[in-house]
Fold each of these.
Amino acid sequence: AGIRRAVVAMTDPDPRTAGRGLAHLQEAGVAVRTGVGEERARAINQGFWLRVTAGRPFVAIKLATSLDGRIAARTGHARWITGKRARTQAHLLRARHDAILIGGRTQRHDDPLLTCRLPGLEAASPIRIVLTRTPHLDPGSRLMRSADKVPVWLVGPAGGTADLPPPDPEEPGRPGLYALTLPDQEEENPTRLVSDLLRNLAEAGITRLLVEGGGMVAGLFLRAGLFDRLYHFTGNCVIGADGIAAVSSLGVADVATDAPRLRLLASHSLEESVLSVYEPMNKA
């Protein structure tokens, strides 16, 4: 085809295929230059990169809170803490991730749909994943009623999901209801639980995971330190101490030594709301 030179941003991290394509080009007499824009390319492909090199997907935590860090009133009412533009951005986040994760308690209380409902992006809705000790969904729930269009995965301990098939790693986005079984844990260990979860999701084909709620699940990932971004949408309301906290207990006794520290990457004003984007200071 008359190609004399190829410019490549990053090489393939997968040892099964790394360098093969470039070697074919060089054997054909094409001059190959690598590393041009590598940092940006790696950021774009971070989910794939982490899945291959770390055995886990890229993980983003999303919080939407009042000014005083509450996600709902004491009654559970939360509409709307953030404004319309913030909610639009939240739906864009869903479209940019392979899968979205919530806890079983949030699923039972809120009965969320978890799809992307922006015009033209409905097909980009993520796989809906529920982390639960009791892996059963109400047949009338919104997730169950829409599983024939957007897949739902139930993730939990052995037993209770035996009647459900596992997802197909070659086609993880196939609609239906599936189950992933996590190893049993003799004692509660957030880091091990999250590590096992992420390893299983990576093996099932997930490269980018959005953790959307609730406070218990967000707390698990923060305690484990196994996340890459935190998107914090802050509304312009104050709910008070009797509201529901955005994050469950982290066991912080000394702020200086125990509290997770994050680095602010960006801040955006979204009319009556603010979006702050963070990364962990010390990546796990």
Amino acid sequence: MEIDEEEIVKLASKIDSGAAESLALLFVQMLDEEHTARHQSRPRLVKRFTEIIDDEQGVN
């Protein structure tokens, strides 16, 4: 999967200019997770997305 990370940062800056890079990184992590979880159950993927977001926000 080819992703232009600079383009994602530009798009993220339209959503949150103060945290564009961290938002872009979070998006790329979630895309990678979705790509590797193609054959996993949906609840497992949702759980993993929740963990990624919680880690980003410092929630335990």
Amino acid sequence: MANKGRVTIDKEQCKGCSNCVSVCPTKILYLDKDNMNSWGYYPASVTDMEKCIGCANCAIMCPDLCIVVERLDNKNKANEK
């Protein structure tokens, strides 16, 4: 079974640098141009959480530690359904 993950982004602290967007292998991250945070930045957002593989590349590349990735095992996925 493929790895799964859950990305949580602190949109208020995100500066929209797009480092996470460029390193995501499944291309599920984007800068949300429709929602500006109180600092005037467009934060990163997730398009399709089901496609997250839990690699944590995004969290590793975030200079402001705005991203947390939780790796889900089969038991966690079964409990969500």
